[in-house]
Amino acid sequence: MSAKYSIGIDFGTESGRVLVVNVNTGEIKSMHVECYPHGVITDTLPSHSNLLPIGSALQNPKDYLHVLQNGIPLALEKAGLHPHQIVGIGVDFTSSTVLPVDKYLNPLCDYPKYHSSPHAWVKLWKHHPTKNRTEQLLKLATERKEKWLNKLGNNISEEWMIPKIVEVFEEAPDIYRETEYFMEANDWIVSLLTNTITRSNCSLAYKSFWNEEDGFPIEFFSSIDVNFGDTILSKLKGEIKNVGTCAGYLSEKWADQLDLPIGLPVATGIIDAHSAVLGTGIHHSETLLMVMGTSTCHMMLNNKLKEISGISGVVKNAILPGVYAYEAGQSAVGDIFGAYVNKHIPETYSQEARMRGISIFDYLEEKANQLPPENGLIALDWHNGNRSILCNTDLVGALVGLTLHTKPEEIFRAYLESTAFSARIIFETYQNYGLNIKHVVACGGLPQKNALLMQIYTDVINIPIQVSKSNYAPAIGAAILGATAAGTHSGGFDNIKEAIKSMSQPIEKTYYPIQKNVQSYEKKYQIYKDLHDIFGMSHSYVMKSLKSNKNPSPSLENI
Ligand SMILES: Nc1ncnc2c1ncn2[C@@H]1O[C@H](COP(=O)(O)OP(=O)(O)O)[C@@H](O)[C@H]1O
Ligand SMILES: O=C(CO)[C@H](O)[C@H](O)COP(=O)(O)O
């Protein structure tokens, strides 16, 4: 009998990856990465010269289709498989990445009349121009004592779906009216492939104020604006399905385009970081997973519900049936290193790296590795705001301790360290609420790319960090869901746990704390925390709750 495979598609911030994974062994038979031709649109829309509002992060939905249309056939060709060896497809996506579509699921940005309106395009998770509106939503929800807020870290983020939709409602009423559905990009892809309208419980619960018990908060929506309340539910309709179920079957149109069998099971979508929990096979409640790339998400599973202020949310059944999944995050990590390397490195460094045939990242890592942890520079890593636990996209980065002699590698190392300190604040918040952390696993692109970074994290948190073998844990997780959607009768699995046992990726390497560095970083971390409080508190929602005589969260009292 020929081996069976599942396709996992991971839509990231800059690119999409298609993996073909053996359902019995987890072997990655082939992989294809497609960079999005339009990338992240921050300044002007294609063929238009009007500047977009600061903080815009839009995308062209055609780029996602490109990943399907090019990526799947190329990955299959590389794998050399017969299409009937594929048992299912799973999709994960960055979130909340949202687009308005018509009743045929066509994106409104494809309509010539809307081509020049930013509100008709995909708003990527890191689209941040909606600060004031989001603050108003939070104020309103807090005043109304909305129950759902407790499970979302007592916060509303600009990175979520509803603030992005309210932005369209208020600023582009014509587009809002003409939108048949606002779709998470993840659900859009799954709905296109299956020719159904399906929504995943995972993105809805973390990003759209929906929950299993109460559904959408319709009264809250009406309190924003009666017209919004009257219209929004119909634009969010679609069958809501749990992660781990089959969303539908590959339509004839897409089967033809992708050269796959008609009727192939397609899994309900999942957020990328959540998918990585499946891909790394984490099931223990005392293990924290860091999904490290452009940003970092800190994921934990637990059978108990704890409502933790400042995290991104806790949702039951979002990753594994019956289990609560916790998410917190840092909205820029690799992005900070990338911005520094691309914009601030002297030409002499780039030349030297080129001459040695290594990347500028590797060159800087080598130089930074020669520095002791005790150097005097400390950075704040808020170049894209602070997602957890201050929940403030307005916050900005800082560098303290510069002299006339500061070298680029010192700054690079300070940035690496600052993201580790920021991660430790999240760790301590989880722990303060009773989520014990005994093991730490790291996956995503960064752990494989920068060993110094991983050693610094290990020394800062003083817990060994296990690095997953695969850079592509989210795509593996998606493939696991594809195999689960297929069921045993088609060569897949009847439940996610069985699929995880066969397909999740092993640990490749473990970093251990170096005690001398642990002590140095302990001191430095205390200074980081002081800076964190001074620069963060004046802006943060914590101050707002203090002003209104509410108790801040225990974790915040401790810092
Ligand atoms: N050697 C390196 N050291 C530190 N950061 C790096 C290195 N190489 C790439 N990066 C950063 O890592 C990020 C890419 O991470 P990756 O996990 O591959 O992407 P994504 O988050 O889109 O899935 C980019 O932001 C890039 O600037
Ligand atoms: O908020 C998210 C998950 O809830 C985003 O998907 C994530 O932060 C972006 O991921 P990446 O850095 O891997 O592109």
From TrEMBL:
Keywords: Arabinose catabolism, ATP-binding, Carbohydrate metabolism, Kinase, Nucleotide-binding, Transferase. It comes from the Bacteria. Residues 5-279 form the Carbohydrate kinase FGGY N-terminal domain. It catalyses: D-ribulose + ATP = D-ribulose 5-phosphate + ADP + H(+); L-ribulose + ATP = L-ribulose 5-phosphate + ADP + H(+). Pathway: Carbohydrate degradation; L-arabinose degradation via L-ribulose; D-xylulose 5-phosphate from L-arabinose (bacterial route): step 2/3. SUPFAM superfamilies: Actin-like ATPase domain. It is an enzyme of class 2 (transferase). Residues 289-486 form the Carbohydrate kinase FGGY C-terminal domain. Coiled coil: none annotated. Its EC number is 2.7.1.16. GO terms for molecular function: ribulokinase activity. Belongs to the ribulokinase family. This is Ribulokinase. The lineage of its organism: Bacteria, Bacillati, Bacillota, Bacilli, Bacillales.
